[in-house]
Amino acid sequence: MTTAHGARTGTDALHATGFPEDEVRARARTGTAAVFPPAHAYGHALFGAGSADGSSGAHAGSADPLDRARLVPPVFMPQRLEKLIELGREPVHDDVDLRTRIGGFASPLPLFLSAFGSTRAGSGDLAVAASVQAGRLGIPMVLGENMVPVHGYAAPSDGTVPALAARIRAYTDASDGTSGGVVVQQSTEDADAEVWNLLYSDPALRQLVDSGRLGFELKIGQGAKPGLGGMTVVDRAAADRLSDAFTVRDVFGQAAPARLRCATPGTFTEEIVRQQVRFMRNNFPRARVWVKLPPGRDVAPAARTAWQAGADAVTIDGAEGGTGWAPRAFLDQVGLPLAECLRRIGPPEGCLLVTGRFHEGGRTVRALALGARAAGLGRAALLAVDEDPEHGLVRLADSIALECRLLISALGTYTPSALTADDVWWPDGPTATAHPQAVGAPHSAPAYADSPDPLTPVGAAPGRPSLPHRVGGPA
What we know:
Elements: H1 21-30, H2 65-68, E1 70-71, H3 78-87, E2 100-102, E3 105-107, E4 111-116, H4 125-137, E5 141-143, H5 147-151, H6 163-174, E6 182-186, H7 188-192, H8 195-200, H9 206-210, E7 214-219, E8 231-235, H10 236-242, E9 247-249, E10 258-262, H11 270-283, E11 288-293, H12 299-309, E12 313-317, H13 328-333, H14 338-345, E13 352-355, H15 361-369, E14 374-377, H16 379-387, H17 392-410, E15 424-425
Parallel strand pairs: 4-5, 4-14, 5-6, 6-7, 7-11, 11-12, 12-13, 13-14
Antiparallel strand pairs: 1-15, 2-3, 8-10, 9-10
Helix pairs in contact: 1-16, 1-17, 4-6, 4-16, 4-17, 11-12, 15-17, 16-17
């Protein structure tokens, strides 16, 4: 592996087995140049299907249904004609407008930075570097669960800045003050620590609140380990320190210095989710409300419940999603693929966000065509900043943006919201088409309307729910 721009090497380097790490690192180094074959090959090589080494397309033999699907441009393009008339010239890919609203936040790209929690990879220098570059890009950033219970919130006596505060400061210092936003997850242990109350009342975050760029995400689950809470590996000293807040178990052997730290997954029913979303809207009226769902078999009614309760965004983390630590059996054997989640949801009732194995434009555009508003960068973002802490994520995002413009324009449209499920072909046959429609029903684009304004409470203000998974701490 070639290193550049201060990338870490050897045992210090970050790795992602089973993920197209080399491709991500190449994009982090060369940016938009990685979208094409090497320029020096022009005039000396002929290209066709199977030529794009390292891509995640159908030719790569991926078992992921969303990777095996193909984008299928039409022959007749009435929207291109409309654009031609509007511009007074033939439109090109540069005319594609990728600007969108992601869960109530303005974003120049249909991308956001996925949640990194309290794992070692997700709460250290790499996460801070990713926060800086996400702020520069103007895309929303999600901060993962359990950061305050593990790392604290107030500055310690040695003057260091806790992980959560460091990431928020890095993002806001790099941002333009108008684009993007910061979304903070909360788990059961976070609720015990009253994380959302701390953030919402912190004078240091007043600018985020006043500009409408602070959000809270209720984490119901994740793709890498549906039904389980967060897990990390800690040493014995940390295990003793965290044992009051977390379940700590010896699973690596009594003589091993490592211990397994487990967070509780929380308990949810339809009514619990409905009440918690309403509680968030009423108790934090100036914060955007997001809900993160695992790839469960009832993902469609769960998403609908969250939207109808007033969530500004619902994030679906497909079974392809990554994590810092999980049992082996969960990584390959548990949860629905993201493509199946999208098929079950169909045209979304609100802002739908997706995560799980995103690192290039093809998968991103297919997800957008199937109803998603934006795709999250998780492992890809960490690998990119590991390759280049100053510019890696920006270059990765630039390469994805160029591919998105090329692909969307090739489909005869000029905004992501104009894409439809007709733009996607499934090699397994028409029965696998996402967004099934009634026979004879006209095709229409998926709904993209934002959720109701979070400044307006939904329904009567409920009292603090007495639930296993508390939200927001004491009212």
